[in-house]
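In the laboratory, one determines a bound structure by crystallizing the protein with its ligand and collecting diffraction data. In a computational setting the workflow is compressed into a single prediction: the sequence and the ligand go in, and a structural description comes out. We illustrate the idea with dihydroflavine-adenine dinucleotide.
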Amino acid sequence: MALHGRAVMLALAENEAVKRTLVQNGMSKGMVQRFVAGETLDDALAAARRLQTQNINTALDLLGENVATEAEASASTNAYIGVLTAVAEAKLPAPYISIKLTALGLDLSDELAAVNLTRILTAASAYPDALVRVDMEGSAYTQRTLDIVRAAHQDFGNVGTVLQSYLRRTDDDLAQMNADGISVRLVKGAYAEPATAAYPDKADVDAAYVRQMKELLMHGFHPAIASHDESILRQAKRFVREQRIENSRFEFQMLLGIRRDLQEALAAEGYFVRAYVPFGVSWYPYFMRRLAERPANIGFILKNLVK
Ligand code: FDA
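The predicted complex, in structure-token form:
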């Protein structure tokens, strides 16, 4: 969608009446289930098991962001440690979780978020091949997130992060992450950003994505190519074929409920595919970001609200 349309939709998400109506009715009217596995860990594990039968791996994301107290940050940290244990006990493939540093207290202090991240990484170290992927939030957090991830990576190999192609700074960040050997998930970016920070034109974002994807596939450490864009996926497949990059050196990632056909097709072709499986009661901001990505989704929400 045009990037200004996304900004309008994200602004609408802040409207209290819209928020109240959606939070009260969204899950029960089935609007949210397309993008969110459910409100409980059991819902997420059930989704992971279903996907596993199609050879699609999962990254579990316990929804929640921007906590306001140390107690909430500690509760999210404990909940994430619980997710790691539950995935291991469910005998699913190696635990792989996605976390947001603002859920671990980044709005309170960098130190708090770093300490909580360390607790999660320590717990994850008990499981061979586990990975903790630190999601990237709005650009006000980019530098702080990268600093915390880089510091953590000196002690833990099981941490990776996310870079957003829409940010003007990303080519430089990518070079730094590759030099540090930190695994990157490359995404286009989902937040409303000013033109000083991000490319306003989708064509520039797409071009940056392709450029950075090639750089990552050549020089990155087990990168994740995270997109539902068919043209990008075609270019990725062509590039790895031409450069003789083995399928085991990277993975494709997509979001639960988006382009399931592509997820299944890539898995059937023998690529490593991972679906991002969000769950939990705090689904509202995630859900609104997904709606903002596509004009058709706005009609979908209005139709469901008046039903
Ligand atoms: P694009 O937006 O161009 O969409 C390509 C096609 O995909 C569309 O034409 C449509 O068919 C389909 N599509 C995309 N979004 C859709 C939607 N919401 N509903 C229906 N169809 C849709 N962002 C971020 O800022 N920080 C992060 O940490 C992450 N993490 C993350 C993890 C994973 C695994 C994925 C796949 C994505 C993210 N994102 C993210 C989101 C990312 O930034 C981006 O907003 C979406 O992936 C959409 O961009 P595409 O690359 O799919 O392209």
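The chain has twelve helices and eight strands. Keep in mind that any predicted model is a hypothesis to be tested, not a measurement.
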